[in-house]
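thread from #wetlab-drylab

HS: before we spend reagent money on co-crystallization trials with alpha-D-ribofuranose, can we at least see a predicted complex? here's what I'd submit
DV: go for it
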Amino acid sequence: MTEPRKIIIDTDPGQDDAAAILLAFGSREELDVLGITTVAGNVPLSLTSRNARIVCELCDRRDVKVFAGADAPIKRKLVTAEHVHGKTGLDGPELPEPTMALQPGHAVDFIIETLRGEPEGTVTLCTLGPLTNIALAFQKAPDIVGRVRELVMMGGGFFEGGNITPAAEFNIYVDPEAADVVFRSGVPIVMMPLDVTHQLLTRKDRVARIAAIGTAPATAMVEMLEFFERFDIEKYGSDGGPLHDPTVVAYLLKPDLFQGRECNVEIEITSDLTVGMTVVDWWHVTDRKRNAKVMRHVDADGFFALLTERFARI
Ligand code: RIB
Ligand code: CA
């Protein structure tokens, strides 16, 4: 039996972030969550840090260390998404306020210390929100970049365009400078863009299978999804909304669910019209460095079967 893969989840919960965390918690044989680091994004840092602990306690995982990170992007004013996630960021279920404490110390220092303390190439960074914490860690401790096994991130879009502006996906748009630092760093990146996540709709039949699990975590997850999807159903007129963040954890568990290719990805940080755009050289029309494995296709039924099977294990 191989050792579980060591991961740090960097997140801005967010109902879809919660789904990713539940997927990790339901996969204890394969994944060892060294810690959860929170970042301002969907809602301000105080709420993402609250929400991460709510999710841990929902899954009876008070053992997991939660560290608060950056409360604002590197240089821009924070843009949040209460219109999607609700005023708490975790609207839907009625869940108790967390009683577990945040860990002392900053998330960026936890990321640095963990990467320096674990054997080189053994820690995977799973990012579900703006890349502020990661960029700050790379800037503060450049030596850790080469120690990262892989950075698997939800963010960006190319043929699918943007979701917060016509050109930009939310996680990148909130902190484009951070994304630029990360994509230029040389860290091995696997990118889950909207081109993939928009194929993963929380259709009624899929949500019903999660509801049939009947446990407290599964029931709360369904209530989160039913709240979270309403915005995108209205926007896209689809049967369910796209489930973004669990793609990151699903990739670690079943990479064959996804297909993509190594591409150059650069981040627009200057134009007001397209700031936050991930410019993906999918057709390799330039000789720019292929700095990311960009996913484009996914087995949606296989993805939801994995989620349902793992949620049931919590
Ligand atoms: O654009 C989708 C991403 O932005 C997801 O990570 C969602 O949680 C929000 O953070
Ligand atoms: Ca997120």
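DV: Residues 114 and 152 are 17 Å apart (CA to CA).
HS: ok that's useful, forwarding to the group
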